[in-house]
Amino acid sequence: MNCLTVEYGLDGLVSTKCDVYSYGVMLLETFTRKKPNEFEGDLSLKQWVSYSLAEAVMNIVDVNLVTSMGNRLQKELDVVASIIKATLDCCAESPARRTNMKDVVGMLQKIKIQLLAC
């Protein structure tokens, strides 16, 4: 997986959905501290995050981003998991299944409120 979408690579089509995809990849890189090309074989950053998220957020998130302990740690991890899920929506293979940027902003604003409540 790289920042270029499938539709851009195959057909040269550019749209706001391409921007959403790239934004999602950038967020995945930010929260995992991994690059899309760090994976071998058919595994991509998006796939690794999707598979690992089900097991534990702590396994995929850059440890420098989460510094709390105890009850606050779990709240922070829940917030990060929400961000990662929104990010994966941005990285859907099909442009029709990708969320639009307005909805992404809305999701992130709700998550910000969650974080401030921690």
Automatic annotation (TrEMBL):
Signal peptide (residue range): none
Gene Ontology molecular-function annotations: protein kinase activity
SUPFAM superfamilies: Protein kinase-like (PK-like) (SSF56112)
Top-rank taxon: Eukaryota
Stored InterPro entries: Kinase-like_dom_sf, Ser-Thr/Tyr_kinase_cat_dom, Ser/Thr_kinase-like
Domain Serine-threonine/tyrosine-protein kinase catalytic: 7-107
PANTHER family: LEUCINE-RICH REPEAT RECEPTOR-LIKE PROTEIN KINASE IMK3-RELATED (PTHR48008), PROTEIN KINASE DOMAIN-CONTAINING PROTEIN (PTHR48008:SF14)
Descriptive protein name: Serine-threonine/tyrosine-protein kinase catalytic domain-containing protein
Natural source organism: Capsicum annuum (Capsicum pepper)
